[in-house]
Amino acid sequence: MIQAVLFDLDGTLAHTAPDLGLALNRLRGEEGLAPLPLGAILPVASSGARGLLDVGFGVTPEDPRFAELRDRFLDHYARAVCVATRLFEGMPELLDELERRSLKWGIVTNKSMRFTEPLVAALGLAARAACVVGGDTTPKLKPAPDPLLFAARAIGIAPRDCLYVGDDMRDVQAARAAGMPVIAAGYGYLSGGDPHTWGADGVIAHPSETLNFVPDTPSMG
To answer: Quick check: helix, strand or coil at residue 70?
Structure first.
């Protein structure tokens, strides 16, 4: 029985693309380039600096300028990590309901803790989350199962009794490798294409639909 729900951060728990886009566009401005519309940023907002710099500058990690642009982009983002970022519509109510049902919830993201910790704090979630696992908490990132297994251990619940919610194919791959049920956030950024092809246990169009996959009575555990 599901006793905990773990969420990806960017594109699942929170709409972070506006602040990521702001950082990218500030960097583009320094390079004499026009700002990109949010629509161009949404598809790669879950892909970190690599995806954003590819869209913003057409550079890959093999490019000689990649490291310098990445560091400047991250510095811009660090200074404004939660200006326009908000929880997705329906997410505050979902978290309240999970807590009402005595179900633990946490965050498992590939975003570095340098950004994750202040963002989660600014959203008012730091004291509520049962765990917060970032991209540098474990040696391997998703799609490896390590971050999800770490989270399950941290909250003392078996992986099979945790539900993971994510908006990228790597989230499903990580959960499958961890032996954890998983649903795809169809309302998210979906940089991995059609979520119905990922092999998740379900695809939700709104955060509230997560409740269809968890017990409807308070946990006795």
So the answer is: helix
